[in-house]
């Protein structure tokens, strides 16, 4: 079951998973709360706790979790997962590089640190994928005229040449095989 965690900033959705999470928990608790908060905020931050008394999701809840994640993929600018459950930590760390926001995994002993991190908004609401101005490389000036203008550069030695896709051939007429000939026997 899901239990909402109170006392967090309004842009933070706090959820604690206990026992077995079911389809009803998504429909009756999580999804309505997310929609209510998204009506007030452009992006949310998720504080998700799965303690020692959490022991999994039923099959329909796993499907709901996948559908929820796909629908709200960009709705969360940050996620703090607080758990000591190895398989949950592994899943979160595997999908973190694909997530457009920031994902941090904390142990149960670090719950207060996770709560502080998620509440302060340690990262901007929409994280930027660009490098800061100090790290950007200056653009190189292109020479006006080069000696080899118009010539193709030779391919590098260790590269495989690109194959361009061939156009499909025009349909060909299928010839029927000739009927087998009957042997004529001469009468003697």
In short:
This protein has 188 residues and is of the alpha/beta class. The chain contains four helices and five strands.
In terms of topology, how is this protein built?
Blueprint (H helix, E strand, L loop, with lengths): L1 E3 L7 E10 L1 H16 L5 E14 L1 H13 L4 E8 L2 H10 L6 E5 L4 H10 L68
Helix pairs in contact: 1-2
Main β-sheet, spatial strand arrangement: 1-2-3-4-5
Report the top-level CATH class of the domain at 2-127: Alpha Beta
- How helical, in percent, are the residues? 25-40%
Q: Tell the overall outline.
A: elongated
Which CATH architecture of the domain at 2-127 is right? 2-Layer Sandwich
- The end-to-end distance, rounded to whole angstroms, is 98 Å
The CATH topology of the domain at 2-127 is what?
A: Transcription Regulator spoIIAA
Structural class per helix/strand content? Answer: alpha/beta
Order of helices and strands: EEHEHEHEH
The biggest beta sheet is recorded as: 5 strands, mixed
Q: What is the CA-based Rg, rounded?
A: 31 Å
Mean pLDDT: 76
Instruction: Give unreliable regions as ranges.
Output: 122-138
